[in-house]
Amino acid sequence: xxxFFFRLDATDGRARxxxxxxxxxxxxxxxxxxxGTAATVKGMMPESVAETGADILLGNxxxxxxxxxxxxxxxxGGLHRFMNWDGPILTDSGGFQVxxxxxxxxxxxxxxxxxxxxxxxxxxxxxxxxxxxxRQLGSDIVMAFDECPALPAPxxxxxxxxxxxxRWAARSREAFGxxxxxxxxxxxxxxxxxxxxxxxxxxxxxxxxDGYAVGGLAVGEGQEAMFACxxxxxxxxxxxxxxxxxxxxxxxxxxxxxxxxxxxMDCVLPSRSGRTGQAWTRRGQVNLKNARHMDDPRPLDEACxxxxxxxxxxxxxxxxxxxxxxxxxxxxxxxxxxYYQELMSGLRAAIAGGRFAAFEAAFHAERAExxxxxx
Amino acid sequence: xxxFFFRLDATDGRARxxxxxxxxxxxxxxxxxxxGTAATVKGMMPESVAETGADILLGNxxxxxxxxxxxxxxxxGGLHRFMNWDGPILTDSGGFQVxxxxxxxxxxxxxxxxxxxxxxxxxxxxxxxxxxxxRQLGSDIVMAFDECPALPAPxxxxxxxxxxxxRWAARSREAFGxxxxxxxxxxxxxxxxxxxxxxxxxxxxxxxxDGYAVGGLAVGEGQEAMFACxxxxxxxxxxxxxxxxxxxxxxxxxxxxxxxxxxxMDCVLPSRSGRTGQAWTRRGQVNLKNARHMDDPRPLDEACxxxxxxxxxxxxxxxxxxxxxxxxxxxxxxxxxxYYQELMSGLRAAIAGGRFAAFEAAFHAERAExxxxxx
Lengths: 375, 375
Prior knowledge:
By secondary structure, the first copy, chain A, is α/β, with parallel strands linked by helices. Chain A contains 15 helices and 16 strands. In chain A, a hairpin with a 4-residue loop joins strand 7 and strand 8 (112-115). The longest helix of chain A is centred in the C-terminal third of the chain and has 27 residues, at 326-352. Chain A starts with a strand and ends in a 7-residue tail after the last helix. In chain A, 55% of the residues are buried. Chain A binds chain B through residues 38-40, 42-45, 67-68, 72, 75-77, 82-84, 294-295, 297, 307, 311-313, 315-316, 318-320, 322-323, 325-327, 329-330, and chain B through 38-40, 42-45, 67-68, 72, 75-77, 82-84, 294-295, 297, 307, 311-313, 315-316, 318-320, 322-323, 325-327, 329-330. Chains A, B: Keywords: Glycosyltransferase, Metal-binding, Queuosine biosynthesis, Transferase, tRNA processing, Zinc. Chains A, B: It is an enzyme of class 2 (transferase).
């Protein structure tokens, strides 16, 4: 069986490109992972997600444990088979979403007791239980169970939370055990405090993981603060392991994060935006709800090769969105995921070619032109 | 340019199989036409609709004239281009849906004035306006503008309505003019009254159409009454032209209609059912909402070759339907349309092979077995 293995092929400044080999396939990095919360990337057939160029999906432990249940998915042959996705899957630990979505949660050193936002049923998550659930799901990349405060937060709250997350990281490592072909990632915390990030990185390295996430960002601190943290945080993590920035982000967040040494990202944005009539393009965001598209025969982006841009006009996208038709979300999600993967592909090629700075400048210049002018 | 041409290849009893050649492709008959009401077959990419085996789609004049508007679709290059469907499209006349969906309608010999169910705006439909709209849409098969009462209805109401529809049919024919490669179908009315059906057929034949619909059925009369009417009505229409039964139906309605000499049908049922968790299979209807599917690893139908049955379990379909995920409607619609097209393919082969009776018996026997037993 192929082992989990990260290969760094090239660097350009702090930006890195390479690949993660897994038994289920290779993940080209920097990688963007579409989110398949409830065992589906909303509005997409999994074959179509693969067509956009995605090598790996993210699944949400919190949602799946509540519905349909991790034990059920295990009995049915695991998450890959359940949702018809043969490639690698990364699952989060459930910690973040318990804090943001569940009701009546109670947090102790042991773990978190909470009520389901779906049916009010009572559940418990801990490092040990999270490892068990992620094993039941059959996840290829398992995330350590952690906790983090929304930012801004008092330094003492951030420090105490980080230190508990580091104790949970050790318990996660212990509970994960040895599972060849599967990886366990630790999650750095420490908010925007550089010394806490260093303390967290040291604790994680001491435990030892297959990869390291920069956690606790994209929780309200803004891009400037996030980039300031990323100017420092990734470098505190091992160079020879993949670095994953959780829950990020907008295209310009992605470019800035890759510039700062990030290898993996995930975000609901491209799929969620697609369902609300928003498209992401090299010229920035386009709101298809806007009446200016009503008679526009042009595609969203004449340079884009996705099925949405090859076959449909802005007028059509406007119409089907207004009419509440499913195909509006299907086409715009496809376009957005395609655009995100094109961006990642461009970033990888630029880093490999030693021309990241030129790529970044062109990226911002193209966006500055704004959406294609009205006919 | 290919002319519109109907070729009858074989008959078996009153059942017929053949093909309609159009400039946009051949329609194998008996044909089932998926409904693309608002310029999309809900939940399906048009390539996927074609993959199910559909040769032709139906578009709704009433919906399209209100949103996005027929003039707009014409400016954008016609309905085919707008919705990315290269094959033939049949459009209804709008008459039926004005009567069933609009508000505050006023019916006169001239036509119907009504308010949009979408925004309350005022509109007018007449034979002339319906022909204009269907031309603007670029429809390949245009339906004459007609009107019909819900059944049961008093004979005098049915007769008066039918006679006005026949006057409207003559006006439709006149307004349609000569459009090579495009076809105009007349619509027989007369409710369940055999002599009125004959009177209507005579009027239509006198005017002369490229095809003939049996209209005014599937409006509440029940299958037995519908079949009793179909025992007689299709035979009153020209043998050398296609016969279209509008708005039908369930799989057993389809088999019974084909047996009685019908060549074309359309219905929202397979797509609408798919969005509400209902599947149609050779063993009858399956309700995926039912908790008995929650742990069932089997496909909907192990003999079905559609992507839904090849790749997903009943447990998955149950889960995504309960979770309100778009893929539930996408997969079940695909399955249902696939099943319907497989049924049509089976009917065509059976008629061609002179074994319609055996096919019909096997169809009913398979359904009588009921859905696959619980594990």
